[in-house]
Design brief:
Elements: E1 9-14, E2 17-22, E3 27-32, H1 42-47, E4 64-67, H2 73-81, E5 86-90, H3 93-102, E6 112-116, H4 119-125, E7 131-136, H5 151-160, E8 161-171, H6 178-189, E9 194-197, E10 205-210, H7 218-232, H8 239-243, E11 246-248
Parallel strand pairs: 4-5, 4-7, 5-6, 7-8
Antiparallel strand pairs: 1-2, 2-3, 8-10, 9-10, 9-11
């Protein structure tokens, strides 16, 4: 059985958007060709809802980490729009090369560090408290379930964050159990520090969890959303809409 890094990388284009695939029809990422900074996919937009947990004046402070490169939408955003030092960890060298050649990876920017490595192994060796913003989107070519989804992995994600840091993960897959994954995240971060966003039409559910950053009160939420839309609305960030999608974590019966 071949490992994920041996799976062929493929591209497709439709209606002005370039898509990344790993030897299957499943979309691993997308970029609008004439406007590469725009965040095209709805679930990626919702992963950036994590910014609502960051005070507006702190958006350009700290360090971003992304586990899983995809088509580089989050990387382009944190490096170019937020101007954050960014480390991205991607196991598949072909995905990195495709980003360099076809998805405007900002590799010439000194703020970007690209690590070709297994995300779980990298995380185990990373400096605790070294990230303010952590995004996780780890799927193989079959997109059946998250590649890393156990209690130890989410504990390591919590450990990587600084106080007040924010984590967002995409949960999607035919065989994935959202309730089990969300429970593991809540166990690592604390139920009071865990929220979910309503699922997209395609079935992607984003979970946001923080290392002590609270969900702000209504007035502050509106201020932060308005500030995000004013700066980044043209890049595809409907921040006021996100306010209607966020729910506190509910473990259920």
């Amino acid at each position: 059985m071949s490992s994920v890094e041996d799976v062929p990388v493929a591209l497709s284009e439709f209606d002005g958007v370039r898509y990344l695939h790993l030897d299957s029809p499943w979309v691993q990422g997308a970029m609008r060709i004439r406007k590469p900074q725009e965040v095209v996919l709805e679930y990626i937009q919702r992963m950036l809802a994590a910014l609502l947990w960051r005070p507006t004046e702190m958006l350009g402070q700290g360090r971003a980490v992304q586990l899983g490169l995809g088509a580089g939408a989050l990387t382009r955003f944190t490096v170019k729009a937020l101007k954050l030092p960014t480390t991205v960890v991607e196991i598949h060298p072909g995905v990195v090369e495709a980003n360099r050649l076809r998805f405007h990876l900002p590799e010439g920017d000194s703020r970007l560090t690209v690590v070709v490595h297994d995300a779980g192994h990298w995380l185990a060796q990373a400096e605790p408290g070294s990230a303010s913003l952590l995004h996780v989107d780890l799927y193989d070519h079959e997109a059946a379930a998250p590649v890393l989804d156990d209690a130890g992995f989410y504990a390591a994600c919590h450990r990587l964050l600084e106080d007040g840091g924010v984590f967002a993960v995409n949960l999607f897959g035919r065989n994935a159990s959202f309730a089990d994954s969300a429970a593991r995240i809540a166990a690592a971060f604390g139920a009071a520090n865990t929220w979910t966003l309503r699922a997209t039409r395609e079935g992607n559910t984003v979970v946001v969890a923080t290392r002590g950053a609270p969900w702000p009160d209504r007035d502050e939420r509106l201020r932060r959303a308005d500030a995000l839309e004013a700066r980044f609305g043209t890049l595809g960030l409907p921040a006021r809409k996100w306010l209607r999608l966020v729910r506190p974590y509910d473990p259920g019966p």
